[in-house]
Amino acid sequence: MSVSVSTHVLDTGSGRPAERVRVELVRDREVMASGETDAAGRIAELAKDLDPGRYALVFWPPSEFFTRVELEVDLEDGHYHVPLLVSPFGCASYRGS
Asked: What is the rounded CA–CA span in Å between residue 83 and residue 30?
């Protein structure tokens, strides 16, 4: 079994991708992988060849209110795309494809 993770961040306040957002993939308080979003707001391959299990995606978004957003996810075998939508007024996520 093998797990891979990608992500993107959209600044819904401006309607644009959020570039240079740091994202960390954490397991048991250890940073397993990290990166920054590109000009399209994406990290195409944050991590690959991971063991299945519970992880946290930690985003450091461009928001005056949400300075750190952490999502805890259970990852089984396969690829997961976990985006973050953020604005000065709210944030949301979903399991992408």
From this structure: 21
- Domain interval for residue 59: 3-93
Contacts 24+ apart (CB under 8 A), 30-39: 33/5, 37/7, 37/8, 37/9
The CATH number of residue 54's host domain is 2.60.40.180
Summarize pLDDT for 15-25 with one digit per residue, the tens.
999 999 999 99
To which residue do tokens 């954490």 refer? Answer: 26
Number of structural domains (the chain) is 1
Q: What is the pLDDT of residues 68-91, one digit of tens each?
A: 999 999 999 999 999 999 998 999
Q: What is the pTM of this model?
A: 0.92
